[in-house]
Amino acid sequence: MTGTDWGFASDLDDVSGQIAIVGVGDADHSKASGRTTYEIAGQAAERALADAGLTARDVDGLMYVPFSGDQMDAKAFHAHFGTSHDLWTSDRGGGMVWAGSAPYDAALAIRSGKAKYVLNTFSVAWATQRPQMVGGPGHVHAEDLYKQNLEVPFGWFPQPVYFANMATRHMHEYGTTSEQLGAIAVACRRHANLTPGAVMKDKLLTLEQYLASPLVADPFRKEDCCLISDGGAAYVMTSLERARDLKQPIIAVLGVGVGNAKSGVYWSQQGDFTATPQQFAAPRSFAMAGVKPDDVDVLACYDPFTIVSLMQIEDMGFCAKGDGGKFVSGDTLHFDSGKLPYNTHGGMLSHAYVLGIAHVTEIVRQLRGEAAAQVNNAAIGVYGGYTGPQASTLVLGRR
Amino acid sequence: MHAAFPLPDVDWPPTRELFAGAARGELRVTRCNLCATLVWYPSTPCRTCGAERQEWVTVSGRGTLFSWSVVRFPWIPQFKSIVPFVTGLVALEEDPRVRLVSRIVDCPIDDLRCDMPLEVDFRPLRFDGVDGEVVVPLFRPERR
Hints:
The complex is a heterodimer of chains A (399) and B (144).
Chain A lengths: L6 E3 L9 E8 L10 H16 L8 E3 L10 H8 L6 E3 L7 H14 L6 E8 H4 L9 H4 L2 H6 L8 H16 L3 H16 L13 H6 L2 E3 L2 E2 L8 E10 H4 L7 E11 L16 H12 L8 E4 L4 H10 L8 H5 L18 H4 L6 H12 L11 E7 L3 E9 L1
Parallel strand pairs in A: 3-4, 3-5, 10-11
Antiparallel strand pairs in A: 1-9, 2-8, 2-9, 5-8, 6-7, 9-12, 11-12
Chain B lengths: L15 H9 L2 E6 L5 E2 L14 E6 L2 E10 L13 E8 L6 E5 L13 E9 L8 E8 L3
Antiparallel strand pairs in B: 1-2, 1-3, 4-5, 4-7, 5-6, 7-8
């Protein structure tokens, strides 16, 4: 079943041009490091505030995601910085889909006077925690009773298997090939090779090497799957007026959209199995921003697997549905020669699996002109967030 | 006491009848009381009308292979003794929007194709190192 009855867009107020991202910071990204999520978030927050020219005392709004129970909430913020002032807080922040939608909630808080400077952080220590299977991407899924009884016993678990099934169906419906999935992995690896701090900075990957790599869950090879990392990032938002008094070039929030799948976390029942809720998120965000896909200079999407990149690129309208395989082949996604520079830091496949938050900091750096794999004169940048049940599209622009 | 992870809990109310039916050799799914659309997963709102009350019905056990993957890497230790295996989605003949997660058996990997006809085969599911077994609906290529 295709069509558009399997999901819907959230109704959002117009917040275009009201706030800006004025500071970005990445924590050190690594394999298992022994660090805690609090240490990682603290480092990212310190760097974001230094980048903005602000202090912890200036922060009066804090966003995080509650799902893992170990994110930088008010208590952790004050413990890290030795502060005690009042904070507006929101648990609609963090990474994944919220790395793209947090600016919407921040804009509402800022324009209503609840906060002036809002910090959004996200961090993971899943590489460190992996041996104990504490946390980690499969953990929350293994605890869902429907999945425990209707999916896991049949080996439909964890995430690589869900998305390998999507890739199989996408190949069947649209003729997508392994070479085309490989082109995504190769482009992301090349960008990571150019990016200081990328976990895979020193590991090269050619299409031939990709194709020679063994299958782990057909049609996926390990190179189709994201890393497991320790790391995180943070960004600071404020009103456009206050942004003018700060030290960084103004990177304005131009559009936000959120799309939803009615099937929630049960991908097996998703009405359009080979699509993402970007179909609902992206048109709204682009309309709010007053831009078209052709206007986008640099794109970063939440990319747990190559096929999720490909589907989002289609669903956001960068090519027709089903043409994604042909579209991404060759050098389309490369930062220097491609039509659509994509995940220019290497994404979750090759930079670090920090669930999208570093995609947003990368887009901001691209629009400032200070990225490692810098796209020439990037003025409009887009982040595509994804959790499965939801997708978000965040349009940012240089002012 | 129910069988251990990753075996299903045959006593969990929302899916109990699926496994009870499998033990009797019947493929059971839920149907919306209001609009008669098949609803899957059980006890989730009907995708057609939103109603939440359902009854269990027996279906033919025929369907098509909507999608699949050959799992070669054991993502959890309990899968070590069964890799490589084929896991996928079976679209039911009665309403292909209902996709059962299952394993595909008795089919060479090279013969797997999306949309190929399948039929149910009830078999006991076991994992090395895990006590117990549960009869579940697996699927094999349709025998003509």
